[in-house]
């Protein structure tokens, strides 16, 4: 059945459900409502499957390795080129940062907000400059950071950035007929920081990209790169939100990002002692709240996947957001945008619904255990035992208490039932 027909059926059923909500609650009405809700859920499941198959992508393993690709190089410079003298290849490069997707496989989550802002601003200046040795004056770096900062504080940021980059897992991978070779190189072949005495104010910073990683920022081919507005990235608050922003931008054409769980924790540099509750509360919730302010992440949602034999263990995390419009004309792009917004809202609603159903099931199980602890309980008054709880049973999410009356010497009676609302 066509997507639009399914959506129309779902909409009609929801209207009927709302009308039934206005009627007095009787067993017949409640039964009708349950039947309609079941039909809505089935239609929703079908729609979700169609949406996911439509947006299906190959889920790439994110490994912290960088495969070498040939990039034309020139003899290394010995005389630095001032940042202000760099020639920008396209006007877009003045506002956008563009780099090879492989850079997203490296753990840069340990960078602070300010360090991340500076690193990607430097990437922007290094793009298509080959192995040029570039000198950044304090005023250059301040403009790149878009903040008012003292030279002394700026020197602290630069030094901390260098310390973090030194420990990042940048690897070069090459292959022969008989082996795979992994070599670790520094991202920058040269990083020189000069400070004034005695104030330790920053005098200048010199950077040169290592030849092994020239391909990360030079001669990028179609489908190989991640690109986003640098100023928008710098305005994102929170180190977790910043890293997630970059990862999502790589998949803006599909609207789906799937990451293996342990790799996700590593890329965001989530503390090892954080359990799932802490990750939800202090990482995901805060990051999504920040990213919801930005298009196309207004309806960003996530779902934890359990794909191993142990269904209690999370193996992957999937993020869903609006797919960028693909239409050629302005009208087609607007229609695509509206459709993408509707699709992602539906996915977000379904993820929320599944979470509510899971929590509801868990709550019912806990309540059933609590009630069953009453089995065998005796209720008495000065004249002796007047009531005994013989059993607790559950029928259609309702709990029934089977009781006996010893003084009457009668069979146990299903004399009281407890609905979810009464508990």
UniProtKB/TrEMBL annotation:
Residues 97-249 form the Initiator Rep protein WH1 domain. Residues 74-84 have a biased composition (Low complexity). The keyword Heme does not apply. GO terms for molecular function: DNA-directed DNA polymerase activity. Residues 62-72 have a biased composition (Basic and acidic residues). Gene3D superfamilies: Winged helix-like DNA-binding domain superfamily/Winged helix DNA-binding domain. InterPro entries: Initiator_Rep_WH1, WH-like_DNA-bd_sf, WH_DNA-bd_sf. One of its GO terms (biological process) is DNA replication initiation. Residues 62-84 are annotated as: Disordered. Keywords: Plasmid. The keyword tRNA-binding does not apply. Pfam families: Rep3_C, Rep3_N. Belongs to the initiator RepB protein family. This is RepA. It comes from Helicobacter pylori (Campylobacter pylori). The gene is repA.
């Amino acid at each position: 059945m066509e997507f639009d027909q399914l959506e129309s059926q779902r909409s009609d059923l929801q209207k009927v459900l709302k009308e039934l909500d206005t009627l007095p609650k009787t067993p017949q009405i409640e039964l009708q409502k349950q039947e309609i809700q079941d039909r809505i859920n089935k239609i929703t499941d079908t729609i979700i499957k169609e949406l996911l198959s439509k947006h299906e992508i190959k889920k790439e393993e994110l490994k912290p390795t960088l495969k070498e690709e040939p990039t034309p190089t020139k003899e290394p410079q010995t005389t630095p080129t001032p940042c202000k003298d760099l020639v920008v290849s396209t006007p877009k490069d003045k506002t956008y940062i563009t780099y090879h997707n492989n850079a997203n496989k490296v753990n840069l989550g340990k960078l602070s907000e300010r360090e991340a802002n500076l690193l990607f601003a430097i990437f922007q200046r290094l793009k298509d400059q080959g192995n040029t040795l570039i000198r950044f004056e304090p005023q250059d770096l301040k403009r790149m950071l878009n903040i008012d900062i003292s030279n002394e504080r700026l020197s602290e940021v630069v030094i901390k950035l260098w310390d973090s980059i030194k420990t990042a897992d940048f690897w070069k991978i090459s292959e022969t007929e008989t082996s795979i070779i992994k070599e670790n190189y520094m991202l920058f072949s040269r990083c020189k920081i000069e400070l004034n005495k005695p104030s330790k104010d920053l005098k200048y910073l010199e950077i040169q990209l290592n030849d092994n990683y020239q391909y990360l920022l030079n001669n990028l081919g179609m489908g190989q790169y991640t690109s986003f507005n640098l100023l928008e990235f710098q305005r994102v608050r929170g180190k977790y939100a910043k890293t997630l922003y970059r990862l999502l931008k790589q998949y803006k054409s599909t609207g789906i990002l799937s990451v293996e769980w342990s790799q996700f924790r590593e890329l965001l540099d989530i503390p090892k002692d954080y359990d799932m509750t802490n990750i939800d509360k202090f990482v995901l919730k805060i990051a999504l709240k920040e990213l919801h302010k930005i298009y196309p992440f207004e309806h960003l949602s996530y779902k934890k996947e359990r794909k191993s034999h142990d269904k209690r263990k999370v193996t992957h995390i999937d993020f869903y957001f609006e797919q960028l419009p693909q239409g050629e004309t302005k009208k087609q792009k607007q229609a695509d945008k509206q459709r993408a917004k509707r699709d992602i809202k539906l996915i977000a609603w379904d993820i929320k619904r599944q979470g509510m159903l899971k929590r509801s099931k868990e709550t019912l199980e806990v309540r059933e255990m609590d009630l069953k602890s009453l089995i065998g309980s005796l209720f008495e008054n000065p004249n002796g035992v007047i009531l005994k709880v013989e059993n607790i049973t559950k029928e259609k999410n309702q709990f029934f208490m089977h009781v006996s009356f010893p003084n009457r010497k009668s069979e146990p009676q299903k004399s009281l039932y407890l609905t979810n609302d009464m508990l």
